Amino acid sequence: LQLVESGGGLVQSGGSLRLSCASSGFTLDDYAIGWFRKAPGKEREGVSCIRRSGTDTNYADSVKGRFTISRDNAKNTVYLQMNSLIPEDTGIYYCAAYGTDYYCLASTDRYDYFGLGTQVTVSS
Predict the structure, then answer these.
(1) Which of 9, 25, 56, 103 is the most exposed place for a label (fewest CB within 10 A)?
(2) Could you say which DSSP state residue 90 is in?
(3) First-residue to last-residue Cα distance in the chain
(4) What are 41-99's pLDDT values in tens digits?
(5) Can you tell me the distance from the alpha carbon of 67 to that of 84, in angstroms, rounded to the nearest whole number?
(6) Are 115 and 95 in contact (CB under 8 A)?
(7) pLDDT 10s digits, 88-116
(8) Is 87 helix (H, G, I), strand (E, B) or coil?
């Protein structure tokens, strides 16, 4: 049972990337899904969350208006569309699966599954 992130890479400032979070061994539609990132020398930061129903989302202030989280339960995948990327967005991006919507929306550590991450590097 695991989460697998993909879609990271190297992009110039102002560019876009779309990250994907897929599950192995369980279905994502039973879980709220959150995205975190960890930049060198910084604490891990909650980036975004989408509820199990997909009807509610939230974003860190640092990414509002630039990132969009969505889910396709038919494909068992959650996406993070990242536009207008800036060097400060550089880091390893992880997804996490929560059995409780509240814990995801509050970006807590009370997740059930956590992925291995995908590297995003934004050059200036």
Answers:
(1) 25
(2) -
(3) 37
(4) 999 999 999 999 888 999 999 999 999 999 998 999 999 999 999 999 999 999 999 99
(5) 9
(6) yes
(7) 999 999 999 999 988 888 888 899 999 99
(8) helix
Structural element, H or E, at residue 38 = strand 32-38
Residue found under tokens 């879609």:
7
* Residues in a beta bridge with 71: 78
* Burial degree of 91 (CB within 10 A; 0-12, 13-18, 19+): buried
DSSP-assigned letter for residue 100? S
Burial state string for 10-45 with b = 16 or more CB within 10 A and e = fewer than 16: ebeeeeebebbbbbeeeebbebbbbbbbeeeeeeee
19: which 2 tokens? Answer: 């990250």
